[in-house]
Amino acid sequence: MSELKHTALHEEHAALGASFTDFGGWDMPLRYGSELAEHRAVREAAGLFDLSHMGEVWVSGPDAATFLNTALVGNLAVIAVGKAKYSLIVNEQGGIIDDLIVYRIAETRYLVVPNAGNAPTVVAELTARAAGFDVEVVDASADTSLIAVQGPASEAILLDMVREEDRQAVIDLPYYAWVAVKSGDIDVLLARTGYTGEDGFELYVPNDRAAEIWRLALSLGEPRGLIAAGLAARDSLRLEAGMPLYGNELGLDTTPFEAGLGPVVSFKKDEAFVGRAALEAAKEAGANRMLVGLRGAGRRAGRGGYAVHAGGAQIGAITSGQPSPTLGYPVAIAYVDPAFAEVGTAVEVDLRGKLEPFEVVALPFYKRNN
Length: 370
Hints:
By secondary structure, the chain is an alpha+beta fold. It is about 25% helix and about 30% strand. The longest helix is centred in the middle third of the chain and has 15 residues, at about 205-220. The mean pLDDT is about 95.
């Protein structure tokens, strides 16, 4: 068994009393105290997350846009410099290798951010697919730290963290965009994407400056209610926001159309991207299962792998589920037969041998007011 990898902030987490868990081969903080308190801090004030296990892959060169349009399912050539786009990398059969975010840094330079456990696979795929293109694929994951500030107070905290001359850029930064700022003398690639359903920012910094940024965010954010938050809170937050997690909702056995990600796939672009023929056929055939939200009528929650029933037969299975701290009732995401995917459909979940009533509801479960 290989040794778990540590982020540059591992000692910071240990000093805060974090409980650690294996996540994609990384020793990551699961919680620091109460995961419920961490969840609520993000909904009501702000949470500080270490996301340095995520990958960072630079794609540069004259053919960068055309290459990414061939390697990924989305149209990355149309992104303006300073903006970002959610996309997918699939295999020839249309199965999802990973979901990722792509930032356009310059006309011929992009930053691709894959998930932690998938980063080596994505790097290998991009490198192989770069053959014949005038591009360079550089994996900077081992040198880059990623820190996220999420929650209603996140903008105010960032305004305290950056230089005076960068504050307006923070205020003006739209969703799914990035800007270069400085925190003291530290260069920060600041993005505004988020995975919690709240406003929030991601700070890409060199490993050797990560601890400084982490401590600064904690000290400046604490008066505004910010606390460090672990993977447990991140998972409950993203579930309420209806966001898929690779390995739960997404995988090699999943097409974008089953996962409700059909709009991410661009058939309008000219490039014969990897998996295009398979995805065109899959779209034509129609999905044989659909991803839906479920709301429990009782207090018991469905968990990943629990069977979903209707009409006396199993019609699907839960991929993620737990009680919603914000909403006060059980929520789950599940793949079900398309005949039972309409909002309002009554279903039952097998909760360890007892069928309990659930209802199909629209995603996301939670949406912030502003």
